[in-house]
Amino acid sequence: MLSTLASHPCTNRPSLPFPLRLSPPPFVPLSRHRLPLHSCHASPSSLPNSSASLSLSQSNSKPHPPPSPPTTLKIAIIGFGNFGQFLAKYFSQQGHTILAHSRTDYSSIANSLDNTIFFKDPHDLCESHPDVVLLCTSILSAEKVLRSIPIQRLRRSTLFVDVLSVKEFPRSIFLERLPPDFDIICTHPMFGPESGKYGWNGLPFVYEKVRIGDSHERVSRCEAFLNIFKKEGCRMINMSCKEHDEIAAESQFLTHTVGRVLAEMRLKPNPDDSMGYDTLFQLIENTCSDSFELYYGLFMYNKNSTDLLDRIYAAYEEVKKDLRRMVQGILRRRLFGTTGVGELEDPAARCEAFLESFNKEMVDLDENATGVHFVALTIGMILAKLGLKPTSIATKGYETLLKLVEDISSESFDLYIALFMHIKNSNELLDQLDISLAKVRTELYGRLHDILRRQLFDQPGIISNGRTRM
Ligand code: NAP
């Protein structure tokens, strides 16, 4: 197949017009197809004997309709890991041809998918002249991988797309590294193999058409690519990379941090969850099925991440302080009687009243369920202190966090105290949360330290433009 694709008579003509809509269906040897002459040598309008110009001369009154957009594309996926394979499944189901390449040999996985071929050598892949090159590698390796693609073997008008979870960074390396004739779209499908496993309907797809040539073919190719996501029902959001990063970088990093901290706590889901915390466990599943590399990328490429980690810590300390102050207030009331403040204004009195009714009603409550409830409320309290705001491009995970904050109503603190008093190991749960938060933070900073050390001492001088190269 490789040789038939590479031996296309057009392959050595870099200045050809974009021939996509005329290309054969996936994986049918080109030699068995009679390609229309203009697919290789000229645009339809420049061919006096082409069927296009004939139809024009036969009917001068009717303008020649623009060619319909291409229906199938030849898409190269560079970085065929978790997310690349997930996208490939959907692309191939829609009839597109996938040319995959990755650091690891994924030939057998490619063989199990329709219309998909794995290229160990990126030169062979580029010589197959994909219509679209989709960069799907980790954020940290993106620049190195982009530099390793032999772009001189591609068609001059190839469309480059990325799906990195941060956007200004790929936009800038594309503009810096790709020749001006290449088209560029920066995208972020805001879902993953877990959150999108039952389909993409209604899920946000953010994109910026960074540079699209104005010829009809280029515009059509861009639309054909975006149509893949439209057809699956994605909510298409045209947004600049800058705006994406301003809105999403923080919310994504926060969502992944909460998911990872909760995972560290090893909470057990309750089979008869009546409190609606199944979404919390989905959040853990969604974020932890993504690689640490991805989480680390969100940390590295969000300039507010270190500050955000500090704010999470500070918010947690404040929640604990509120909790201790309240417990002490209740105890003091018991020891010394009322403080003279009216019952309704005295939070300790209100909490104590709540606690009494709570204790009467909740004697049979499952210990694990109350533990999960208590942790969920603690996270909700922390997030409320951080001042979480809804965004137009929220992932499912971030929506779970917003829901937690929404659930924190004025009575929640009374319930929170009640749970704290009711659960025997609530102090241990708080300690566990402390340890988990510290562990995640240590992992992030440990990694940062490690990379910088390697760059400074193993390969001095490799840091350029302030970017970290992997
Ligand atoms: P990832 O850990 O971010 O990236 C894994 C991919 O990067 C694999 O293809 C891997 O190649 C490649 N890679 C990692 N280090 C490399 C290196 N040093 N040199 C060459 N290749 C390297 O996990 P992912 O979930 O597959 O994400 C891929 C991209 O999609 C990321 O940019 C991510 O931000 C974006 N994204 C992911 C999701 C999601 O939910 N997972 C959603 C939207 C966007 P090998 O497998 O061959 O080693």
TrEMBL record:
Q: Keywords in UniProt for this one?
A: Oxidoreductase
Q: Which SUPFAM superfamilies match?
A: 6-phosphogluconate dehydrogenase C-terminal domain-like, NAD(P)-binding Rossmann-fold domains
Chain residue ranges for the region called Disordered: 41-69
The organism's superkingdom is given as Eukaryota
Bias class Low complexity marks the residues at 42-62
Gene Ontology biological-process entries: tyrosine biosynthetic process
Domain Prephenate/arogenate dehydrogenase residue range list: 73-353
State one molecular function term (GO): prephenate dehydrogenase (NADP+) activity
Which InterPro entries does the record associate with it?
6-PGluconate_DH-like_C_sf (IPR008927), NAD(P)-bd_dom_sf (IPR036291), P5C_Rdtase_cat_N (IPR028939), Prephen_DH (IPR003099), TYRAAT1/2 (IPR045011), TYRAAT2_C (IPR059064)
Name one matching Pfam family. Answer: TYRAAT1_C
Q: Which PROSITE patterns match?
A: PDH_ADH
Does Oxidoreductase show up as a keyword for this record?
Answer: yes
Q: What is this protein called?
A: Arogenate dehydrogenase
Q: Which organism is it from?
A: Rhynchospora pubera
